[in-house]
Amino acid sequence: MRQGKRYQRPSWEEYFLQLADLVATRSTCLRRQVGAVLVRDERIIATGYNGAARGLSHCLDIGCLRDEMDIPSGHRYELCRGVHAEQNAIINAAYYGTSTRGAVLYCTDQPCFICARMIINAGIVRVVHRGDFEDQLALNFMREAGITVEEFKVTAVPEGER
After folding, report:
1. pLDDT in tens, 43-60
2. How distant, in Å, are the alpha carbons of 42, 81, 125, 145 from that of 37?
3. At CB < 8 A and 24+ separation, what contacts does 17-22 make?
4. Which residues are catalytic?
5. pTM confidence score
6. Helical ranges in the chain per DSSP H
């Protein structure tokens, strides 16, 4: 316990989003580092970061296919070596035999429409993200499917209170 000041525990949202930030540090994408944490009953069931599929060379090592093809961010998602963080979290849960039904997904960015469809079919009931990427179609899909989508803004802690 810190002396002199009362320690402020992070909320569950802050805690899992901080973990998503840490997971994102494993990303092998040259454009955007994204992390995702799947949680059920306040327990982590899987994590994922964006990067090349198993067995493929990482963009960090060979360069970005999307840059080579001059594809702008937010377009032609399918033309990429990488698997999105949200997708990898869902895949990792399946790979290890863990159900995602009823889970909450915490991610550093708002999911895209491809991830939204996977989130819907995975039975995820809530998505908490920080924004920094906007895909209105994804939001429409998730809301239509009854998924709660929340943008969570982290408030900065003044330097003297850390």
Report:
1. 999 999 999 999 999 999
2. 11, 21, 14, 21
3. 17/106, 17/108, 17/128, 17/130, 17/152, 17/154, 19/44, 19/47, 19/106, 20/47, 20/85, 20/106, 20/107, 20/108, 21/108
4. 86
5. 0.88
6. 12-24, 59-62, 65-68, 85-95, 113-121, 136-144
